[in-house]
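Posting here for the record, re: flavin-adenine dinucleotide.
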Amino acid sequence: MNFNKVTPAIVQKLIDAIGADGVVTDAETLRPFASDYTEDLVFMPEVAVLPRTTEQVQALLRIATEHNVPVTPRAGGTGLSGGALPILGGILLSCHRMNQILEIDRENLIGVVEPGVITQVFQEAVEKVGLFYPPDPASRGSCTLGGNVAENAGGPRAVKYGVTKDYVMGVEAVLADGSLIRTGGKLYKDVSGYNLTQLLVGSEGTLAIITKIFFKLLPWPPHRKVLLAPFHSIEEAARAVVAVFMKGVSPSACELMERDAVQCAVRQLGKEWPHSEAAAHLLLEADGHSLERVDEEAMLMGEACMEVGAEDVLIADDERRMREIWSLRRSIGEAVKSINIYKEEDTVVPRSKIPELISGVKAIAAKYNLMTICYGHAGDGNIHCNIIKTVDDETWENVLPTAIVEIFEHTKSLGGQLSGEHGVGFVQKEYLPITQGAVEIGLMKKIKSQFDPMGILNPMKIFPAEV
Ligand SMILES: Cc1cc2nc3c(=O)[nH]c(=O)nc-3n(C[C@H](O)[C@H](O)[C@H](O)COP(=O)(O)OP(=O)(O)OC[C@H]3O[C@@H](n4cnc5c(N)ncnc54)[C@H](O)[C@@H]3O)c2cc1C
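Prediction output follows.
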């Protein structure tokens, strides 16, 4: 990849197109754009540009194409696979100022937004008019809808409601050469040609810059109950997940947390927690429009847990207690981060394979004297396996890549994949050939070259160097 550096003449063109207040070149102001939430990686862009309109995004990309300069899109910067890191410098395109909710169409149950809207801000805006946008990544207070679409983000509610792709009805996007495309829109049915909308969902900023999104909305489900069940073993908790679904219920969350995950979250929150010595906890939620049905589903879920051997089942239906239980789950990510350097693998397997996944990951880590903390969206088979650094720097550098390869090979042997929701980005790209064939990767690269022939959009992402 032979790209050009950003010269003062290119910066001047960017200022002419976007305005001086939207172009950043000094090192101190550029620094926040050099990292996201992925480990401790830092890559400085040469310039950061903050457009306000689609036309400005088009102008920026025409300049980048003319001068053969790489462009890295960035939204909330909460990504966990390094997708927003400007690995080769170049132009960092921040969607921060494209943050307007353009329309909430109640009759058609559709919301239209710019990509920089914070996910929680959108959720609260639609809730105010009795509507519901279900995708709820645990980072929803700081990630954006554009980043969610680019990563096809999930979250706890995916088990009942699906992931971001299930709500994207259309997008407006700018291609690498500055041309504008519009796909889908307010139509609930549309088979007029290839489904370009869904091709862009999860494309991690490598195919186009998304500038507008049409989201499907649902009526707000007013009733909710949260259950927390401690178990004597991870195996039992995982069996309870299968048992819950066999009851014919549809939990709106089904999260598994192993002991170390609960204990580090409890320490982070500075609170006492009953049963924090239990080997694993399941957090379950029932929601819906009928109170009777929500009560019935909660009861059936509790029954399933007790039948498999739960130590207890705590049920909460008041807002304060439900928030408290959720705060335990939501704080695990930050709590794990505060222990030591770590590497998170976002493994996903068929639901019934969770016990084998976790025991295999622990055996691999133990072989290299590493610690793991596992938790996540058990209802979807999507378990975040965090490998914590418990050895010296040199050993860590030497053994980590081998341990990761073994973990992914183990995941593949269970019918799994290397990422359920965080994407491939920069940090997983070399592992992609473990679970994807050469033909599939070759096809993906051909699609990329049709959208972006010069390869200026988010280079060094998704594809391994040698394939
Ligand atoms: C504490 C914590 C909890 C998390 N929990 C979850 C979870 O439950 N579920 C989950 O799925 N993820 C989770 N994540 C990961 C992360 O929040 C998601 O991947 C999120 O979708 C990233 O959004 P962002 O706005 O921060 O995007 P960024 O990190 O800024 O960017 C993500 C990717 O999108 C691309 N991109 C950004 N904007 C555009 C655009 N306009 N057009 C094209 N490409 C674009 C970037 O180039 C990059 O590849 C969590 C992260 C943290 C730190």
